[in-house]
DUF1329 domain-containing protein (Solimonas marina), 430 residues
Amino acid sequence: MPLWDAIAQNGEITRAYPDELLSIEAYTKGRLKPGDQIDASNVESVKDLLEPIKYAQIATLGRRLTLAPTTIDIMRLSPWEYLEATVRHRGQAMFDARGNVVTREGKPWIGGHPFPGSANALELMAGLTLSWGRHDASLYAIKEVDIDPAGEPAFDYQCAWAEMSPIGRVSIEPKPYWPGHEDKLRFQTVFFVAPDGVRGTSYLNVWAYDQHQFPDLYGYLPAFKRIRQFPTDQRFEPLVPGSTLYLSDAWAAGDPLYTWGNYRVVGRGPMLAAVSGGWNASHPNWEHGTHGGPKGKTFWDTTVELVPEAIIVEAEPTGFPRAPVSKKRVWFDARTQLPIAMVSYDRRGQPYRSFDGAYALYQDGDRAFMDGKHPYWSWAHVHAFDIQTGRMTRLEQVRSVSGGHRTSVNDAGIYDRYLTNAALMRLGAA
């Protein structure tokens, strides 16, 4: 049965895939099963299920992955309201003359993924660019640790990342659009609260709905005590010292859709990915354990499962003449159209950097962090790794960071608190 026909029937994927793609035990003919660990001793048996940088991390740097059963219930793999809207609005999306996603009436998109079940490269990347976190508004409290090649923490930051969608809203009133802002795609801020050397540093991106335009980028630097507008096409540089994470990397779609080009599908098949089990409910601040690398601090403890079908999309940075990358590959979970891995390649075509995230439904037995009527779904942790230098940036979503900033979802007040120039000034002075 076609995948999204099966999902629309009962929210499950079992009718869309054969048994050997729904069980790591069946796929490996009993060599591996849920609860086992993948490490250097057995990684060759699943090499074809891993992107190249993750394979190298396991084979040479001591990374380990714990196996879990494949998630069958699609409603555990994205926010409930987002998936409901995806089913409800199925078949209503198209590209307009400019290449932007619109409804059949030519209006901005109304919510959910516009192209569920698609295997078209441009449609996959367009859906991802439209909604990163799949919530109308989010504030992620984040701890970032930057690990040097010797395996020691070089920088230790606390920050928060806010994003809000004025279109395609499925949870926050007014829906589906915030009147007066239909020409915008998102507001997004990142600000740092620790250590003291960067406290108050903040950046605000305001995205146009037209995906040919670069966002407006504003920043507050404590040393200048004022808001500055920054060149918006410098998206391949770290925001703070030591980080290997660039604006371009965000959600594997950190740039407007048409600043990249030559989108194409270059592969399909099963994959191991961290699409569930990433929330550490046992820690009061949701913090994760680490392992591997020279000092046992390089990698998050990560649980992965067999994803029945991944679609590999390749793209080139056509809008960046001085980009340090020649192309990127993004692996999409065909069930949800979520990005489950990204690898960028240098100008020589060699693997360069990876963006490797883990997701979770924030529910563990009788413990849950709620998003309205349903448990919260989001990313849980990220590895941003430069394989050529051995530098790692580890990020994790935590309950709270310094300054009283706490993870929250679908709170309309996020805009006034974090997503304006006045908010940048206030955060910088705090």
Summary: The chain has one domain: 3-85+118-429. The mean pLDDT is 96.
